[in-house]
């Protein structure tokens, strides 16, 4: 199993959610977060100039999926969240050791 963390532009949440559900994702966690990348939160990149770092609002999506589904999930987020402008976001992929559905006791793949 993989645990996929994606930081995306807020207006991309709904299309990403819809596309992931269409692909068979059964659950996800979403948070409103703030962050910065290489441009330190500036709306454009000025080479050589000094600017203060600011935090930009982003959406964090966390989704636990089977190894089989993970490549498709990464592909969908990449395609749907992309605008081609700076700040489109990032995807981090972690190995997921275990999962458990509290109500039923289902574990691992049965719990996703
Ligand atoms: N190294 C990092 N570690 C943790 N979070 C990060 C990291 N880089 C970016 N993020 C998160 O991803 C968000 C979007 O980053 P962003 O897309 O601006 O990355 P970038 O490397 O600057 O790429 P780009 O040049 O396309 O803007 C940030 O606001 C932050 O929340
Ligand atoms: Mg950036």
TrEMBL record:
What is the recorded name of this protein?
Nitrogen regulatory protein P-II
PANTHER family reported for this sequence:
NITROGEN REGULATORY PROTEIN P-II, NITROGEN REGULATORY PROTEIN P-II HOMOLOG
Q: Quaternary structure?
A: Homotrimer.
In terms of Pfam families, this protein maps to: P-II
- Report the coiled-coil segments: none
Family, as annotated: Belongs to the P(II) protein family.
Name the InterPro entries on file.
Answer: N-reg_PII, N-reg_PII-like_a/b, N-reg_PII/ATP_PRibTrfase_C, N-reg_PII_CS, N-reg_PII_urydylation_site
């Amino acid at each position: 199993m993989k645990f996929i963390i994606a930081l995306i532009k807020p207006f991309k949440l709904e299309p990403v959610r819809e596309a992931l559900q269409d692909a068979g994702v059964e659950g996800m966690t979403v948070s409103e977060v703030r962050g910065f990348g290489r441009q330190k939160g500036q709306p454009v990149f000025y080479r050589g100039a000094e600017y203060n770092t600011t935090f930009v609002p982003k959406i964090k999506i966390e989704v636990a999926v089977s190894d089989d589904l993970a490549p498709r999930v990464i592909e969908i987020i990449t395609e749907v969240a992309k605008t081609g402008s700076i700040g489109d976001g990032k995807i981090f992929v972690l190995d997921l050791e275990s999962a458990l559905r509290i109500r039923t006791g289902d574990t691992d793949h049965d719990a996703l």
